[in-house]
Amino acid sequence: MTKQRSKRDDTSPIADLFGLPVLNNPPEVSSGSAPAASAPATAKSGKGARKPFKIFHPRKAKQDRTYNRADVMDLYGVGRNTVTNWMKEGLVTVPGHPVLFRGEDLNTFHEARRAGARRNCSPGEFLCFHCKKVSSLKGAAAEVHWHSDHTCTLRWFCPRPTCSKPNETFQSRSQVRILEEQGVNLTSVEDDYSPSRRPGEVVQITPKSEVIHEPVE
Fold first, then answer.
1. Last residue of a domain, one of 97, 116, 135
2. Whole-angstrom Cα distance, residue 68 to residue 128?
3. Does 198 lie in the same domain as 138?
4. For the chain, what is the HEC assignment?
5. How many domains does the chain contain in total?
6. pLDDT tens for the chain, residues 1 to 217
7. Do 81 and 153 fall within a single domain?
8. Is 34 within the bounds of a domain?
């Protein structure tokens, strides 16, 4: 004889069936209580920061090949908006739909873009690698670090008050003399790894003179 299964009382809580404590009166959250503290907001990533103007090689695309938008994005490693901006700047497309680009037109566009980004500097002028502005160092201070008797590194700060960041450029002895004639205040220093330095000697260098070796007393 089979036993008749007793019906479960639907009014009993589920937790009571498994021997768990039942919370009869759960605490009510008042409307005036402060909301739970959210996780601290992380700092914004560098995605939103504006990237500097990038120049691509003018022979990167194949002359006789046709590229679609996705191919151009993969070839130059750029996004869809960048290709759209190039089209607004004058990148020629093949008439019709979908949008196609000839390799010859891509190379022509980037060659013109590369030429437009060049800066012609007069004697005593330099291009700041940070603000991308040409400034004159006349009356400014610069430090010359000599690597040999003929080559050196010129270290200077951008004279623009809004930038004032350090820069380095390679110069020859003749270029250093031109800078001195233009009124640039130069301070000459010879690095320890210079080939003209010999152990036990103090080296003094001026832009218009040769290397002077003085024995240590």
1. 116
2. 36
3. yes
4. CCCCCCCCCCCCCHHHHCCCCCCCCCCCCCCCCCCCCCCCCCCCCCCCCCCCCCCCCCCCCCCCCEEEHHHHHHHHCCCHHHHHHHHHHCCCCECCCCCEEEHHHHHHHHHHHHHHCCCCCCCCEEECCCCCCEEECCCCEEEEEECCCCEEEEEEECCCCCCCCEEEEEEEHHHHHHHHHCCCEEEEEECCCCCCCCCCEEEECCCCCCCEEEECC
5. 2
6. 555 555 555 555 555 555 655 556 555 555 555 555 444 444 444 444 445 557 787 788 898 899 999 999 999 998 999 999 999 989 999 998 889 999 999 999 988 888 766 767 788 888 888 888 888 888 888 888 888 888 889 998 998 888 889 999 899 888 888 888 888 888 877 554 444 444 434 444 444 444 444 444 4
7. no
8. no
Instruction: Print the domain residue range for 209.
Output: 125-215
Residue labelled with tokens 């960041």: 165
Q: At what angle do helices 80-89 and 69-76 cross, to 10 degrees?
A: 100
